[in-house]
Please model this.
Amino acid sequence: MNTTLHTELYRKVYTVRMAEERIRADYMGDEMKTPVHLSLGEEGLVAGVVHALTATDKVFGTWRNHALYLTKGGSLDDFFCELYGRETGVACGKAGSMHLSSPAHGFLASSAVVGSILPVALGAAYAQKAQATGDIAAVFFGDGATEEGVFWETLNYAALAKLPLLFVCEDNGLAIHSHIQNRQSYDIATTVKTFNLPVFTSDSTDAGEIHELAATAAAAVRRGEGPAFLLLKYLRYLEHVGVNEDFSAGYRCKEDCADWFDRDPVRVQRANALKAGATEAEIAALENGIRAAIEAAVAKATASAFPALDELRKDVYA
Ligand SMILES: Cc1ncc(C[n+]2csc(CCOP(=O)(O)OP(=O)(O)O)c2C)c(N)n1
Ligand SMILES: [Mg+2]
Model:
């Protein structure tokens, strides 16, 4: 096993986990005036896919975008300042959690309207091909987005025009509280395959395994073979929006999810890193560094000013 690869993957999953645990700890203080849709449970999935992309590949996401932002290279300072609505945030406090982006790191946009980011990513894929940049686009979206017409239109055109677009379906089987079996009369993988593109499925929580799968898919896309589709299952640990658990709400049962918790992505990747040759001391130092960076980011955010009133209409296009 490759020590650098697995340590880097662990750095990514641990950063997401700790940043979101920090949000959970602070959120009820009501200083973070933004809805938050947490990535807890999908850290291995997002880290694995993003690690298969280059720094200049273009990525797009949804409201559930913290893991994408943090693994694609977005800074913790900019992140917390944005969540706290401060002028030092990545979008001067105007985006909040749901519209995070980090263009400098190739995270070009996220949208809170189900399915709406897909055609935007398609446009970016088209541009990469037209300009022969060698980069690809990757779009992250939930299982619910496949219920939107624009999803199928995007899929069709990407396959038809052989665009360099990696579809990443983050399949938690839920759209807010609705189970997939009560929403979809089709099987996503089977139906997507009829558009003539490769579909890779997994329910792994192991960032290393996901990385391998995503690297295979991304390589095909980069070779110009057209789009590829990753259908990746995970357990959403918390409620749809917010920082609490929702297992007592009556529509899902924590005991039924025991297998997922046994395969917690952070624990799995920590073990991978050790198995790959990292020492306990190195891992502990990495963890301490990440927690210190999060504390520093929160301290910076809470000490920063709110944006001035004239910021309100800047960079607003719709
Ligand atoms: C067009 C549209 N319809 C409804 C909503 C309300 N809504 C927000 S998130 C969501 C669930 C989406 O589920 P999924 O795509 O599976 O993503 P997840 O939250 O599970 O990651 C819905 C219905 C919306 N934002 N946009
Ligand atoms: Mg979902």
